[in-house]
Write a structure and sequence with these properties.
Elements (H helix, E strand, L loop, with lengths): L13 E4 L2 E3 L5 E3 L3 E4 L4 H5 L3 H25 L7 H28 L5 H26 L3 H28 L8 H10 L7 H40 L5 H21 L8 H19 L5 H30 L1
Antiparallel strand pairs: 1-4, 2-3
């Protein structure tokens, strides 16, 4: 029995293989390509939440589409043949759509996973995107001999992204947990009434979610107003005001980070914007400490991100208020 570990394969990896034989007259024979997916144990899969598993299934769907691209390319034998060249053009369009779907998936992940967690996954997905674009170009140029190697390279990059995503989800299994609002919408679609025990629980969850969202929205509005004052003073203040300005900027940054730590679920699907806001506040604080001429601009960028975040949170609070009726 050949174990996946004997091949250096990990769960969620994809093994690509084909049989090759040479006859006595040195004629070479090659089979079609076969794919083996290394699936984790049932216990590991059961530990994943349904939303987390759905994200992994999205990458699996991209992988399956890429496998089909490889199968279709293998059926071709002559890129200079007009009919086969036309078929290569059609397969190239498949790669184009796959590249776009990969980029879209990467963007969506950033709203739920932290910057630290998303970085290796994002790198793998960007590499897969580049590989798919390279494969698309090779097919458009009708370079049949290079097409399958390029396609297989893109396939392995997608598999790597899936494996890294699975690792991240094990570290943070609640990352893709749906909000109470979205669960209520789903329950309503299933025909549940407010008297149903499941719906009653969801409505209580929504009430808590709405309160937390309102608290966070109010605090973000206040921080955005404070940051606006810091920005104005950074543009027009004098040297003797600088110590107070630095102190105010440090305080705003600390309060923002404290707010995120206190309400992690409320910020959960705004991770990307929250991380950007944190980075802008850090930049503003650092440049003010350095008395940099760029400090006013940095403070303004921090104000812009805080306001965007506050606006998003205000809209979410309004949606929950409406759902509560």
């Amino acid at each position: 029995v050949l174990e996946p570990s004997d091949l250096g394969a990990d769960p969620w990896d994809v093994i690509v293989y084909r049989a090759i034989a040479s006859a006595e007259d040195e004629t070479r024979y090659e089979s079609s390509t076969y794919f083996v997916e290394i699936i984790p144990s049932r216990d590991e899969l059961d530990r994943l939440s349904e939303p987390a598993y759905e994200r992994l299934e999205q990458v699996t769907d991209l992988i399956e589409q890429q496998r089909e691209v490889i199968r279709q390319t293998e059926r071709l034998s002559d890129g200079s043949d007009p009919r086969q060249a036309k078929r290569m053009d059609a397969i190239s369009e498949m790669e184009n759509r796959l590249a776009a779907a990969t980029r879209s998936f990467e963007s969506a992940l950033g709203e739920r996973l932290t910057a630290e967690a998303i970085e290796p996954i994002s790198t793998a997905l960007q590499s897969a995107h580049q590989g798919l674009r390279q494969s698309e170009s090779t097919l458009k140029d009708h370079h049949l001999a290079q097409a399958v190697p390029d396609e297989e390279s893109a396939l392995q990059r997608l598999a790597e992204a899936r494996r890294l995503l699975a690792d991240a989800l094990q570290q943070d299994p609640s990352a893709f947990q749906p909000s109470a609002l979205s669960e209520i919408e789903s329950a309503q679609a299933r025909g549940l009434s407010p008297s149903d025990p499941e719906m009653a629980k969801l409505l209580r969850d929504l009430e808590r979610e709405a309160k937390d969202t309102a608290d966070v929205a109010a605090r973000l509005n206040q921080l955005a107003a404070e940051q606006q004052q810091i920005t104005l003073q950074a543009h027009s203040g004098t040297a003797d005001q600088l110590p107070d300005l630095r102190s105010a900027q440090r305080a705003t940054r600390r309060q923002f980070e404290s707010l995120r730590a206190q309400y992690p679920k409320t910020f959960r699907d705004l991770t990307k914007l929250s991380d950007e806001t944190s980075e802008r506040l850090q930049d503003a604080s650092r440049l003010l400490e350095q008395d940099s001429p760029m400090a006013p601009t940095a403070a303004g960028l921090a104000q812009d991100r805080l306001q965007q975040l506050a606006d998003q949170m205000n809209r979410r609070w309004a949606a929950r208020q409406m759902a509560q009726g």
